[in-house]
Amino acid sequence: MTTSEFDDRPPDGRLVTPYDERHLTMYLRLLDAEADGADWREVVSVVFGLDPAREPERAKTVHDSHLARARWMTTEGYRHLLEPRLQ
User: Fold this and answer.
1) What is the pLDDT of residues 16-72, one digit of tens each?
2) For every residue of 18-72, which 3-state class applies, written as one string?
3) Cα–Cα distance measured from residue 49 to residue 39, given in angstroms and rounded to the nearest whole number
4) Nearest-CA neighbor of 30 among 75, 76, 65?
5) Residues 6+ apart with CB under 8 A from 8
6) What's the start-to-end Cα distance of the chain, in Å?
7) Calpha distance 86→57 (Å, rounded)
8) What is Dmax (Cα atoms) for the chain?
9) Nearest by Cα to 15 from 74, 72, 77, 82
10) In the chain, which end has fewer C-beta atoms inside a 10 angstrom radius, N or C?
């Protein structure tokens, strides 16, 4: 993933957005890394392609905000994915 493919912060609304839908795999990777106890610096480097030594504040913000959104998807957001869609 390149820096142009994600925002520094994902949406924080109460509905699943097209951004969320495009980044479901990334959210799963973040959750898997957390479950495995991976260091956030390694995760942000692999998943987002960011250098946490060069941009520590941005890297931490990107990681933490996307991980929080991934957690939200597991508790609330997934319900929106299960709802019938208008054609």
Assistant:
1) 899 998 999 999 999 999 999 999 999 999 999 999 999 999 999 999 999 999 999
2) HHHHHCHHHHHHHHHHHHCCCCHHHHHHHHHCCCCCCCHHHHHHHHHHHHHHHHH
3) 15
4) 65
5) 58, 61, 62, 65
6) 30
7) 40
8) 46
9) 77
10) C
